Amino acid sequence: MNDTEALSARVDALEIGKAHQDRVIEDLSDALAAQWKEIEALNRQIARLTEQVQEVGANAASGQAPDAPPPHY
């Protein structure tokens, strides 16, 4: 194996490694984006639940029932 073939083999190995790293980085980026979407959805859900708990607490403190039962009960 001469120097040109050795250099060519090294370049090929580096190109293969870089292609693999590019794919891994893309996969990790996609996973991170999906996790951020889920985190944002969970934060919105927590905010809604916090508001509901505060409403229930305010209604309990004032002695009001949150919802009157339907007339057929």
Please explain how this structure is put together.
With about 70 residues, this protein is mainly alpha-helical. It has 1 helix and no strands. It has one helix at about 5-60. The longest helix is centred in the middle third of the chain and has 60 residues, at about 5-60. The chain starts with a helix and ends in an 11-residue tail after the last helix. The mean pLDDT is about 90.
List the helices and strands and how they pair.
Blueprint: H1 3-62
Explain briefly what this protein structure is.
By secondary structure, the chain is an all-alpha fold.
Task: Give me some keywords for this one.
73 residues, mainly alpha, 82% helix
Give helix % range. Answer: over 70%
End-to-end separation in angstroms reads 91 Å
Strand count, sense and closure of the main sheet?
A: none
* Contiguous runs where pLDDT drops below 50 for at least 5 residues: none
The best one-word shape is rod-shaped
Order of helices and strands: H
Radius of gyration: 30 Å
Class based on secondary structure composition and strand pairing: mainly alpha
